[in-house]
Amino acid sequence: MKIGILGNSHVASLKQAWDRIGADHPTIEMVFFAHRGTQMSGMQAVAGKLVPDNPNLREAIIQVSGGRPEFDPAEYDAIVIYGLGASVFIFDEEGPYSKKVMTIAAENLAKNNVSYTLLERLVGISSKPIYIGHNPFIAAYGAITHEGAEKYLASVERLNKLIYQPMGARLLPQPPQSIVNGDKTDPIYAKGAPGLRVEANAQDTRYPDHHRLHMNDAFGELWLGQFLPLIETAPASTSAKRRHPKSRRGRPD
User: Fold this and answer.
1) How far is CA 194 from CA 117, 140, 184, 226, in A?
2) 71 burial via Cβ count (<10 Å: 0-12, 13-18, 19+)
């Protein structure tokens, strides 16, 4: 099985984890396509492929993917869109807001980012299974409680029914064991987070230990550890009727 993963700098944690554990999954091949920030919004749908619309993005795609200048969904059995501003609105039924207000807020948060822009473009050119991995929660600072992730997990399923299932996609949760304080990441997963190499002959870089936005390869291994059984046993169904909305430019992640 061949998996294509599109994303931004958050992909580095998955890529480094896969470099370490890939040999344990000989039937799986993963190819990564990524650039920093919101640069992936330049991947345009052209003749059934996602093609970079500028030389800088093209060079990054070639470097990260190992020589491929564009993304052809036909070559892959499943697709992952990771990071790129995707996030989860946590529904709080006990809070002060009505269900209608929370639904509107959740839709705005889910759709105004590069992740959703690429999802729109992909469903217009491919019927392959698509999985969404949202930006990891920021690492906790200060006091840490191992508060349950029940509201978060319920919100992921609600977003799937509301937004992603009608698109023929599936939003995957952040590994629950990495979550603290209900909506933060355990800071142990932010220490030594790798940077994304997009230049030829670039050296490996790591974010400083006080950095809280990007996660390390231990986190990447956790994420892949929950993802791989899904594709090794039962790939996401594409039987749902997909909407084909007009593509938009992505907003900052």
Assistant:
1) 26, 18, 19, 21
2) buried
Q: How confident is the model at residue 47 (pLDDT cuts 50, 70, 90)?
A: very high
Say which CATH topology domain 2-233 has: Rossmann fold (3.40.50)
What are the sequence ranges of the domains in the chain? 2-233
The set of residues, in sequence order, having a beta carbon less than 8 Å from that of 130 and lying 6+ positions away, is 78, 79, 80, 81, 119, 122, 123, 167, 168, 169, 170, 236
Do residues 121 and 44 touch, judged by C-beta distance below 8 A? yes
34 residue type, one letter: A
Token pair 């000989």: residue: 26
Q: What is the pTM of this model?
A: 0.90
